[in-house]
Design a protein that fits this description.
Largest sheet: 3 strands, antiparallel
Strand content: 25-35%
Order of helices and strands: HEEEEEEH
Shape: globular
Number of domains: 1
Number of helices: 2
Distance between the termini: 53 Å
Strand order of the largest sheet: 1-2-3
Structural class: alpha+beta
């Protein structure tokens, strides 16, 4: 049973125009959400909490993400995703 549960995962794809978030269940069912990187907010729970929570919020919708990661892994993921969203919000730089 734990091997089947291990097949559940989340996929992220970030471009300058879109953040695509997909959750795939252990049975292979896939749900996708799309956000404009300029408007999505990465919500971070209390850094001291043992069960830190991460969520994407935009347009009245909120989706908890990375629930299967440990607190340290969530902190690293949140840092990486936050930096990537910052780059996407600034847009492409041409000729510099």
């Amino acid at each position: 049973m734990s091997f089947r549960a291990a097949r559940a995962h989340e996929d992220y794809r970030l471009t300058y125009l879109e953040l695509e978030f997909a959750r795939v269940s252990a049975r292979g069912a896939r749900r996708e959400w799309r956000f404009n990187p300029a408007w999505v907010i990465l919500e971070r729970g209390d850094a001291g909490a043992a069960a830190q929570r991460l969520a994407l919020r935009s347009g009245g919708r909120r989706h908890e993400i990375a629930s299967f990661l440990s607190a340290d892994e969530k902190a690293a993921f949140a840092g990486d995703l936050g930096r990537a969203l910052g780059v996407a919000r600034r847009g492409r730089r041409f000729g510099a």
